[in-house]
Amino acid sequence: MIGAMGSIKTNQHDIVIVGAGLAGLTAAYYAKKIDPKRSVLVIERSGSAGGLTGSWTDHRFGPDKKLQMPMHMIFRDKYPNLVKLVQEIGGELSTLFSGYRIITSDATAHRLEMNDWTARMLPPPLHGLGMFSKLKMPLRAKWDMLKLALVSTYSAREVLRGVQEPKLMPNTMSLECLELLLGMGPVSRDFMESITPSIFNLHPWYTSAPRIAAVLAGTMTVNRDSLHYHVFGRNYNPAFIDRFVDRLRAMGVEFSFWTEARRIDASADGSRVEALWIKNCGPGNSARYICRNCGAENHALDRALCTRCGLDTTLALVRDGTIKKPAPADLWREPEECGCEKLSPGTLITAMYPQMIARLLPEGSPLRRHPGVRSFFSSRARQTQLSIARVYYRGRVTRGEMMITGTHNPAFAFNGCQSVLNNFGAEDLGYAGGDVIDVLLDVGVVRDAHSHDEQKKRIVSDLARVYPDADPSLVEHVSFADIYPEVLYLSDQPAIAGLHRFYNGHRTGAGNWFVAGCHSGLIGIGMESAVQSAMSAVNCMFENTGESVKINRYEMHPLSRAASYLGQAILWWKVGRHPGRMAGTRYSER
Predict the structure, then answer these.
(1) Which pLDDT tens digit goes with each residue over 240-260?
(2) Which of the 8 DSSP states describes residue 241?
(3) Where do the domains of the chain lie?
(4) Helices (H), 115-138
(5) Which tens digits make up the pLDDT trace of 412-425?
(6) What is the rounded distance in angstroms from the CA atom of residue 517 to the CA atom of residue 506?
């Protein structure tokens, strides 16, 4: 059981899960459903659950003001396992949206929406003809979009088969490279630079072509109503995560918040995990501080890493005397000397991003011999960075609009925005002043060029270009935060050709250690991948018992499957006809 400070009074649990994000919570839920008698402990380094699908209090602005990663889209047909889970837990979803708006670099607004007669009457992928016909671009650009749609459908077919790399489309290829190989012109590429970040956050410049192409197909061409989506009906934690945690506690799942995993030890042959070293850094034995970057509450004991935005201020707190003895640069070093507790998990599930897992494995660990585990280290080369903002207005400025708007960045200071007041209501936001808009910025190199104040001014100015009533003089407050790679996902585009990727895989090579998270799911994106991967990890764990969780399959309309072969032919014609173009031996399997 867990003490008042979050300390763990027994070091033996049947299942220990590291990470209380959506994947970790889902793994705990289904493990308990299969075998209620097994003890389950969830370890989380922040003070609340949710991870990137969690909200937090922005203490810089007020005790009732929240901040979160904006605009998580819950596609009704593309995310079947997530939708089922939200319904089981009783999560609160918004109304159903049939599409969203895209604004390209020339300020042209396009409506991506499937609600006309073609969407209702024609089978996929023909159901999107009406939407494509309404795009405000020349016929040549629409032809470019059709080619990409067909090739994307081929990629989706291969991904749904569980293929690591579709033929002629390596993971090292960026989406922009694919666009150029297909001969797409500047208008269609500009459109993709606007739409891709609104779905995937990452730009075509450094997004892995097979992954994002499959996502695009899943959103546009694979099934009817594939563009229809919800968002959460309130801030993430009150809408879903807090209810999920309450359900898990009622099922007997234990939680230890403000507890950081520091080291994973294995048997000499690497066949089993034998120990997990953890350190409690919560209230009672550490110094509380408010992150100057995102306003989140944190506690500093031997290091000061904001658990929400990833800002590391350890050196500053060492200088002012708050931290007396900092943690070693390698977190796995000298766990006993650093005051860590040792757990002996029967089964370990790490529901974390690969670069986070890599930091827990000491040099010389036999676990590093496993190809999948080695990929955790290689994947650290390409990470992303984001900035987020919540803008408070003294008057209504969005005219009641609720859907998401995707914008071209860097033509705009952000790549997506949405009125959360129109979706969440004033009570949930603690603000009845007028309007509240969330924005998301895939910053790229912009962070190094602009200060926070400059970024806020750019955001406020560009919101007036999206919403004509959003007069900058009506702005009361802007909550802004940079989000650092320490807490973020990877770009999915490996730096080394033929690199082993941890897609659709949940075994590590150690018999009692499994991996869950969006990076290890079949579709490899967002909340659905986190849920599906956690369910798959639980099925792997219970494989020998004959028990399993039913995972909803991703369906592809027969006509879309037929169209995928046309896309494969286009790719064969454009990219190259030699079957031996792909790397043979994978780097991390040597």
Answers:
(1) 999 999 999 999 999 999 999
(2) I
(3) 12-63+237-382+489-545, 99-227+555-576+585-589
(4) 117-121, 129-133
(5) 988 899 999 999 99
(6) 9
